[in-house]
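ok so i was messing around last nite and threw this chain in just to see what happens. nothing serious, just curious
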Amino acid sequence: MTDARWIEDNDFNPALPLWTRANVGEVLPEPPSPLGWDLVFEEGTILGWRDCLIGRLGIEESALDERRPEVMGVFGGYAFLGTTILRVWAERTPGFTAGLLDAAYFAGHPDIPPYIAEPWHANDATTETMTGWLGWVMGDRNQDELEADRLLAHRIRAERPNLSELSDRELLDHATSFIPVCRSLFNQHINQSGAASIAPGIIGAVCEAIGDPSKAMHLIAGVGGVDSAAPSFAMWDMSRSARTSGDLTELFDSGYNGLTERVRASDSADAQAFAASLDEFLLEFGSRGPNEWDIHAPSWELEPDLVLALVDRMRGADDTHAPSTEHAAREAERERLGAEITETLSGDPEAQGQFAAALASSAVFLPGRERSKTNIIRVIGEIRMAMWELGRRGVERGDLMHPSDICLLFVDEARAYADQSLAEVSDLVARRRAHFEWLSSIEPPFIFGEPPPPNTEWPTRGAHVALAAEVGDLLTGIPGCPGLARGRAVVVNHPSDPSDLNPGDILVAPMTDPSWTPLFVPAAAVVVNVGAPLSHAIIVSRELGIPCVVSVNKATERIPNGALIEVNGDTGVVTVLELP
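result:
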């Protein structure tokens, strides 16, 4: 029988009824683990979100629950985004609306109901606060706080103790010490995310007013300094070594499972130099990986073969695919269009000034949003490393099957385990593992505005497979990064297994996080099931210059693997040209 305890569902508040998997499905695509939820979300990031709304964005304290604020929560074992309070904030912000917020984060998904104002939604105090905040976003743009956070996150990583020398209880204490840091860093992440949503809306409105709305995408591409794109640039350099060295080619050709160990064991000078480059990469980017917000999932540092699998896909690409070349082209185009539109607006100094301020703001806060995410992921990586060390010891003792199993405990249980007072650990974890696997097999609702049905009534994943597209079918989504590309569609469901993707192919993915982005480099284009203008796939594709279309509903089911397709990143249309 499954252990009855799991992450407690949030209470449903009728005053804040709208919950959705949009956006949060990219942060936690799988059911969150109990320990991951306790250590990162419950007392950390979610309260940091509340802190930002109240302390920076003018929302009154009484509007949100003090313990479990209705910005993010769990229903039926899955994480959901609380949308109502975000729409209220948008309506209270001068020049912003709930509709613009929906467009920025949810891409106008047909299941998102229209915003309906209620008397309590209006609040002059919030509006006054936001007027000052917008002055920072559009004028001051000072990022000293963000830089201090970056330095803090790097210092925490640099000062990691020798985890193998800590006692079990010291490992847990080390991990829990970062909960308030996660809270503070997420406060800043929401601040940066809100700021990043303002300028693109203004740029889009200006481009629409001058009769060419498609230019808006070009004006927020190639801004530089986007941390989530940085691993792709570093992997590209590693892939050049793997491509040109005979010794490394032989090692890579033998497959990427166990490749890290074979590279480190090789006597080849090229292999040793490559291993040193990999160590540098892991020091800087090792906290990233698939499903990186949940410490239950491995990071690149824990499973470096995941890195080499991505480098392997890049090494087949010739030098014309260099991401720096594509980025430079996008940057030049952005600067050219910016100057062109600024000149067009010369007869309207007010509009011209607002457009110039929006360009400057987007160049600060789009990278700022990604940096604030990188900062917190770096700290989450330290929590993960400490808890997986405790899990490793649990495997040695025969209590656990895998180090990640420690994340199937709650923090009070992990404390009892560290103190050697938790009984029947292996049986408890086995029941939890079975429940986690069952949760992973069901499909959560995308959106609800009233208490959802129990998860025992949710459909099984894959129970309703969409009909495959035929030749000539047009699949529509949201334009992400401009450009036109044709190529063979390769459906990749997880970044750890990209072996079928070759240079010039079109990547078709269910969602993307930073662990996916290196696959953008050899790909001719990217198509994603979900996403919105501020989603990770779009921000990174614009840096790498890869045509991208997101929010193509059930693309991974409808587009046959191996089909010849055309991706139009300007219009958001994917056309099936030939079947495999």
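not much to say yet. Residues 474-578 form a domain with the Glucose Oxidase; domain 1 fold (CATH 3.50.30.10).
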